[in-house]
Design the sequence.
DNA sequence: GCTTGCATTAGAGTCAACTCTATAGTTTAC
DNA sequence: GTAAACTATAGAGTTGACTCTAATGCAAGC
């Protein structure tokens, strides 16, 4: 498939896809060139980009992603390094979820306050 | 207290605190000027900055935070708008937590795979 | 009174992650 | 066969959130 189709299938823009390639997040398993120099994408590219999107949306930088994905792809990362990365990432995510819970608690308090004020017909400034 | 102390107490840099003020996240309830033009901070500033930090760490932009906080402060936001914001933010956070769970599942799969490979003495490329 | 350290400002610089522009070649539909 | 739509590149511009610099002034300890 060509870049436009991949863009539609992944929800990324063609610009972003080219940018990701430049940043080293795609390799010859995902994309090659046709004779006209157009990029030809394999289905693997869809999976890869969706993976990138998911991890990126939980706070992985492209640089970090690139390192870990290249490590997995080329086996330059040892298995132990891979395990360590996964474990530390999992801890990070658990921490993050706790932060979200804290914010949710704060929002809940705000909501109670707001609703109380709404029901109070004499609600005033301060 | 002066800016340095506030920085220590909030874990932000003095640069960042001044930047936040410039961006409208602090007002006269949090900071005023001494005769020598030094900023003098009240305890409210600590709470405010911690709130900003927490919300910001779960993906609120400073612009969004500024709007909602100013709305709360000056009562230009109606109660209903406040409730709506809180509710939509809560939904957003729930969605985000689901994303985190998905990533955790992916990481778990990766971990299983890695551990299997580690135990396999004949582990090879691909 | 002098040094060291903290305070002020305006504005420049940085970084990540896009996002867009200009220019030019290719493909497709009619 | 030509216009519209898609592809390519290099490189410039944008945005958000800092982060730092330079020049200068105030303060506290000795």
Sequence:
């Amino acid at each position: 498939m060509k870049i436009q189709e991949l863009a539609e299938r992944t929800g990324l823009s063609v610009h972003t896809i080219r940018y990701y390639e430049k940043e080293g997040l795609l390799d010859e398993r995902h994309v090659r060139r046709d004779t006209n120099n157009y990029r030809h994408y394999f289905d693997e590219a869809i999976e890869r980009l969706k993976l990138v999107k998911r991890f990126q949306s939980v706070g992985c930088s492209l640089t970090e992603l690139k390192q870990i994905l290249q490590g997995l792809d080329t086996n330059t990362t040892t298995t132990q390094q891979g395990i360590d990365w996964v474990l530390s990432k999992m801890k990070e995510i658990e921490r993050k979820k706790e932060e979200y819970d804290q914010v949710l608690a704060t929002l809940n308090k705000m909501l109670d306050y707001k609703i109380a004020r709404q029901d109070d017909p004499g609600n005033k400034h301060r």
Chain B touches chain A at residues 51, 54-55, 57-58, 75, 79-80, 82-83, 86-87, 89-90, 93, 96-97, 99-100, 102-104, 106-108, 110-111, 114-115, 117-118, 123, 125 (CB under 8 Å).
